[in-house]
Design brief:
about 400 residues; alpha/beta; three-stranded antiparallel β-sheet; 19 helices; 11 strands
Length: about 400
């Protein structure tokens, strides 16, 4: 059974998603991605927070492009089926798909990790191209070249080694592995890669500088496909009767596109609709350790800013650089905030930071009440100064309105 080349994983996963009660049609992104096939801009890296639909879109793309499992029935009636380019790319490509979170087991080494991946890939290629079985071809890129075909690559959780701090001494080797596999290779028709952390390519000589990146801080092209729009959430609410749009909005709204359209946390919205109640699904998927981690770095009074945001006061700041894979602990306030935006803990729009919604507000309040933060917890409980500032701002707004 194929594990990487023309495997059925993406097809099966999208098939399940397609028949879900709260399925949202995001297939219009396929037309935009298809425009990049066999062009200089064929290297795409989409980095968004966990549970923002990255893997769902990736599986959708795999089901659409992969030639082994016909998927016309899955896409019938969806937005992409009305595109002029729909049939041109449907099931038209050899698909190489893999996730970088697949570790070989305890006490393994980086060589075990990357060696198993290369072995699986090589076995798949030789099975699909038996004429190559007896040829002595050492490298994986040379083996792919020898097929004479073109491939679409979809890579999930590309940043797993960085976000989980695994094989630190070999992280540079991993970047070189991806570079050698993908860069300047005639067999690459498209690479669609996802993760949480952007690529660290701001210094010269980056191994993956061929990728165009779309992040929580910079994405005016694909942003509407990651997160639910207001109209999509409204339509989902009509599929049940227990929760209203206002309730869902209070708990899970708070992100936005560059032009100001509202975006909701998609996984939390679906969980709430399935359960028939609103609650923090960050908590249910594990403690929000990221908040505690970043608050411990009280650089430039970050915690004081967070206290203000907990009291519904946005923080004005210019953030012009992402927190990226391979970066050490944040060194200044802007880097901390960039990291928190990248992780989806804060929203950033028109040079203002805020806590997006009630779900995240609860998590920040819990974090600030941790005994490690002493005086900060006291500020939250007795925030008279904050309340005075809020009352003053409210009075000013009333006078302006009059």
């Amino acid at each position: 059974m194929a594990l990487c080349l023309n495997a059925n994983t993406a097809y099966k996963d999208f098939q399940m998603l397609r028949h879900d009660r709260y399925f949202v049609d995001k297939t219009a992104i396929i037309e935009k991605v298809s425009e990049r096939i066999k062009t200089k801009n064929r290297f795409l890296c989409i980095t968004k927070p966990r549970r923002f639909g990255k893997t769902s879109v990736l599986n959708m793309l795999g089901a659409y492009y992969g030639k082994t499992y016909p998927s016309e029935d899955l896409f019938a009636g969806l937005d992409i089926s009305r595109s002029a380019s729909y049939r041109k790319h449907l099931n038209g490509y050899n698909l190489i798909s893999f996730s970088m979170n697949d570790l070989p087991g305890r006490k393994n080494t980086y060589q075990d990790y990357i060696g198993r991946f290369e072995k699986n890939m090589r076995n798949d290629i030789v099975q699909a191209y038996p004429e190559l079985a007896n040829r002595e071809i050492d490298s994986l890129p040379d083996l792919l070249t020898a097929t004479g075909d073109e491939f679409i690559f979809i890579i999930d959780e590309w940043d797993y080694l960085f976000s989980h701090d695994i094989y630190r001494e070999n992280q540079g080797d991993f970047l070189e592995f991806l570079r050698d596999l993908l860069k300047d290779r005639a067999y690459v028709a498209l690479v669609y890669m996802t993760g949480v952390l952007p690529i660290k390519k701001y210094s010269t000589g980056s191994a993956l500088n061929m990728f165009k990146e779309y992040t929580m801080l910079r994405d005016s092209y694909f942003e509407e496909y990651f997160g639910f729009t207001e109209g999509e959430v409204e339509a989902l609410c009509r599929r049940q009767s227990r929760l209203t749009l206002d309730e869902i909005s209070e708990w899970y709204n708070g992100y936005s596109t560059g032009d100001g359209r509202r975006l909701y946390n998609p996984r939390s919205v679906v969980c709430a609709l399935e359960d028939g109640c609103c609650q923090s699904y960050w908590t249910r998927t594990g403690r929000m350790d990221e908040v505690l981690f970043f608050l411990k770095y009280n650089i430039g009074q970050v915690r004081d800013d967070v206290v203000k945001m907990v009291n519904h006061m946005p923080i004005g700041i210019e953030i012009n650089k992402e927190y990226a894979a391979g970066q050490e602990n944040p060194a200044n306030k802007k880097e901390i905030y960039a990291a928190m935006v990248i992780y989806g803990l804060l929203s950033y729009h028109e040079r203002e930071l805020c806590i997006p919604n009630k779900e995240l507000m609860i998590e920040f309040e819990n974090a600030l009440e941790d005994e490690d933060f002493g005086y900060v917890a006291e500020l939250v409980r007795n925030s008279d100064e904050i309340q005075t500032i809020k009352d003053t701002a409210a009075g000013k707004r009333r006078r302006e309105e009059q």
